[in-house]
Design goal:
The protein is an all-alpha fold and 171 residues long. Helices cover 65% and strands 0% of the residues.
Length: 171
């Protein structure tokens, strides 16, 4: 297989949106970990059928730390892979005209996957904290659900827009 040329990457507005949302999700994950660190001893990882914490509780600081580290590793790994699109393995040899489109599609898929992974770890950190007994956490849970639904709407909206744009190009 012939060695592929290094392509100059041009980020579209949609790509910048994905990168910014992913960076914000990572920052929120790390800030939640830091801000909940003092309450980590109250975090339970499992409850029994009566919704009481189990005796053998393995939650707490180590769970928050592991989730945050995995989020950083996922973010860094996908960012590094995205810097080297010329090593992507396409099933057929791409022509010069199609290569740019294939590279852009592949890097966008990586950005979406990175956003989903960081979002999942954000949700897991938030879920760990939501297990802390509180008197009133309904407003914070509502805000978190609005943010998560907003992220999903942005992802799904961009995918749908991309599908419709691809359909109009082929006509």
């Amino acid at each position: 297989m012939a060695r592929r040329r290094k392509k100059k990457k041009l980020l579209t507005k949609r790509d910048w949106i994905f990168e910014i949302i992913t960076a914000i999700a990572l920052i929120v994950t790390l800030s939640l970990t830091v801000s909940y660190w003092h309450e980590a001893s109250k975090i339970t990882s499992a409850n029994n059928i009566a919704d009481q914490p189990d005796v053998y509780d393995f939650g707490g600081r180590i769970t928050l730390l592991i989730l945050s580290i995995l989020s950083i590793i996922g973010y860094a790994g996908f960012t590094i892979v995205n810097f080297y699109p010329r090593i992507f393995n396409f099933s057929t040899e791409a022509t010069s005209a199609a290569a740019a489109s294939l590279y852009q599609l592949a890097t966008r898929i990586i950005r979406i996957t990175k956003l989903i992974i960081v979002g999942v770890f954000l949700f897991l950190v938030w879920f760990q904290y939501s297990n802390v007994p509180k008197t009133d956490q309904s407003s914070s849970n509502l805000l978190f659900m609005i943010v998560m639904i907003g992220i999903l709407v942005v992802i799904i909206g961009n995918i749908v827009i991309g599908i419709f744009k691809m359909g109009t190009k082929s006509r």
